[in-house]
Specification:
Elements: H1 2-11, H2 26-41, H3 45-51, H4 58-69, E1 75-84, E2 87-96, E3 101-112, E4 115-118
Antiparallel strand pairs: 1-2, 2-3, 3-4
Length: 138
Amino acid sequence: MAILCAVLLTACGGGDGSETAKSPDLADQDRFLKDYVGFLNASDQDGLARLLDAHPQASRDAHARIKAYGGQDWDVRWTRTSEFERVWTVAVTGTARAEHKPVRVTETITWEDAHWVMAPLPGIVPTPSNAAGTEPPG
């Protein structure tokens, strides 16, 4: 619950900025990920949107994640690597449902303004027309 409140405060511009010096706590990231998996397993779109509320398309992202991964009874673990300060690539692996369907999902999680922020799924946030990798109109 504290994580949800912290994420909500960040999204709304809460805090006086004094928390920005706080170092990331990977045990706290584990709690964030456990909440994430719990919301997915429960297909709790509202709870997931609150957890992901650090970016402006949180509701759309939560809807897309529930559609893709929701209600699958994930039994997962994760490993993380970090090549850049305050940015982790998290590999979520395990099984889903009684059939033990493999789960392999990679997420990017950053530590911003003393809060965990998960990058939205591709296509959720519009890509600028001049972004790298986009074709010029022609």
